Amino acid sequence: MTRPETPLRRRSVFLLCALAVSTLVVLATTYTLWRLRAEAIERLFDTADMYARSFEAHLT
């Protein structure tokens, strides 16, 4: 015979699943923001390099 599920066990399972989903969402959002930040920094370095070369060419 199986035991009937108690409300406390059901609530615990629900909270555990909700916590797992929330953690995954936070991790996915953090990773996405980190990648976007890295891309933006790389793009800004490329732009700065372009301006430095242009200024150097202007001076010489």
Characterise this structure.
There is one protein chain. This protein has 60 residues and is mostly helical. Helix content is 88%, strand content 0%. The protein has one helix and no strands. It has one helix at 7-59. The chain is rod-shaped. It starts with 6 loop residues before the first helix and ends with a helix. The mean pLDDT is 94.
Low-confidence runs (pLDDT<50, min 5 residues)? none
| Topology as a string of helices (H) and strands (E) | H
- Fraction of residues in helices? over 70%
- In whole angstroms, the N-to-C terminal distance is 90 Å
Secondary-structure class: mainly alpha
State Rg.
Answer: 26 Å
Average pLDDT, to the nearest integer? 94
> Which percent range describes the beta-strand content?
under 5%
Major β-sheet profile:
none
- Helices, by number, come to 1
Shape: rod-shaped
Task: State the main characteristics.
60 residues, 88% helix, mainly alpha, 1 helix
What's a concise summary of this model?
With 60 residues, the chain is an all-alpha fold.
What does the secondary structure layout of this molecule look like, with pairings?
Layout: H1 7-59
